């Protein structure tokens, strides 16, 4: 069994999600994933929605920015960004952030068991550039502000409970969050060229009102061991959180984050990397680096949001590149899964699987217009594999 196959085998099983120190003596590090043949095969010609997909897959448009969601009276938000799915009885809910300055927030679309839209509504309003975030095991959505000294807001996907600002999770240029129910922590990325990687330890698991913010400490190497150190002043004033701890490892533009099976992966857009933290032995390594592809042109560039499937595959969205969602398999193959055509001035955001793993949701943030008011949110349905 491949090492990553073992690590990715156990997917975060909740209804809220799909289910440089020096090199350590004696530790084994695998080479980053390489260009190869997708388990789904090559991409076919673009469909009527302009999406190139493998055989057996189909797409549909769920919502368009500035237009009412079909079958509802809710106007879909501009610049749709990070997202997640939540089980809702026999159906599910897809939540989506809005990366609009000052009025960003988040919205949601509700589906029944057959996938038909049954409702859409706002779950967070009047916040600033809500970029990515993450689902919690207790079925809330953490919506993160991608601004200097931004906040994390905990929201209700059903839109019943008021959103709550979680100050204890730190003030910095937040990007994504990923919950680890084993260690009972939340991992957090920071979208700065000299950003850090954090974890938040709630005083009580399931309650994010208080706790301890820590930063990952390691050397400058691309692999090695790491430790965690408390951030003395999580509110980041007057000193930014990333500048408070000597030895905190610098990451170039933290983006998406995903936890499964005692492993957390996160992307750094500034250097085209996917990082892997092996939590059982406190080591880190590169799962992918677009500059280290040795067998042809790197298929994945502009790494951004990331999610995972029950097969252990990672699905990484591109901001830039050629507008693809690429797959990284447990046996370290990277290949395109889909490509959006005719939208070169946009980026792909918010990939998330329905609770049954049969549908993948995502957005093109600026659509064909290249404007935040032209965002398009999609669903792709097909024979997603359940085992690697």
UniProtKB/TrEMBL annotation:
Residues 1-30 form the signal peptide. PROSITE patterns: TAT. Residues 364-375 have a biased composition (Low complexity). Keywords: Signal. Pfam families: PD40, PhoX. Residues 364-388 are annotated as: Disordered. This is Translocation protein TolB. It comes from Streptomyces capitiformicae. The lineage of its organism: Bacteria, Bacillati, Actinomycetota, Actinomycetes, Kitasatosporales.
């Amino acid at each position: 069994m491949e090492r990553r196959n073992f690590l990715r085998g156990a997917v975060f099983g909740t209804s809220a999600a799909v289910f440089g120190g020096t090199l350590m003596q004696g530790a084994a590090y695998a080479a980053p994933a390489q260009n190869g043949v997708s388990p789904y095969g090559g991409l076919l010609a673009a469909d009527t929605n302009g999406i190139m997909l493998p055989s057996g897959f189909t797409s549909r448009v769920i919502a368009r920015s500035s237009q009412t969601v079909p079958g509802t009276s809710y106007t879909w938000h501009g610049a749709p960004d990070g997202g997640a799915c939540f089980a809702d009885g026999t159906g599910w809910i897809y939540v989506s952030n809005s990366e609009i300055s000052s009025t960003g927030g988040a919205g949601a679309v509700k589906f029944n068991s057959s996938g038909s839209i049954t409702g859409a509504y706002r779950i967070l309003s009047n916040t600033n550039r809500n970029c990515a975030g993450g689902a919690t095991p207790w079925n809330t959505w953490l919506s993160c502000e991608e601004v200097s000294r931004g906040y994390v807001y905990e929201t209700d996907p059903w839109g019943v409970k008021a959103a709550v600002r979680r100050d204890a999770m730190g003030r910095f240029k937040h990007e994504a969050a990923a919950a680890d129910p084993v260690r009972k922590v939340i991992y957090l990325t920071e979208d700065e060229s000299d950003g850090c990687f954090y974890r938040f330890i709630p005083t009580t698991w399931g309650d994010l009102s208080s706790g301890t913010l820590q930063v990952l400490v390691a050397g400058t190497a691309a692999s090695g061991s790491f430790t965690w150190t408390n951030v003395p002043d999580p509110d980041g004033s007057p000193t930014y959180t990333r500048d408070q701890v000597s030895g905190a490892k610098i990451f170039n533009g933290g983006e998406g984050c995903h936890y499964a099976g005692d492993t957390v992966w996160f992307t750094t857009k500034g250097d085209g990397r996917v990082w892997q933290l092996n939590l059982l032995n406190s080591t880190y390594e590169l799962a992918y680096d677009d500059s280290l592809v040795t067998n042809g042109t790197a298929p994945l560039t502009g790494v951004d949001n990331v999610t995972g499937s029950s097969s252990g595959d990672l699905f990484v969205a591109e901001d830039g590149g050629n507008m693809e969602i690429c797959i990284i398999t447990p046996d370290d193959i990277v290949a395109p899964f889909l490509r959006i055509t005719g939208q070169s001035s946009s980026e792909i955001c918010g990939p998330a699987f329905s609770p049954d793993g049969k549908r993948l949701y995502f957005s093109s943030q600026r659509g064909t217009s290249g404007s935040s008011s032209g965002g398009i949110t999609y669903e792709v349905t097909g024979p997603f594999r359940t085992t690697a």
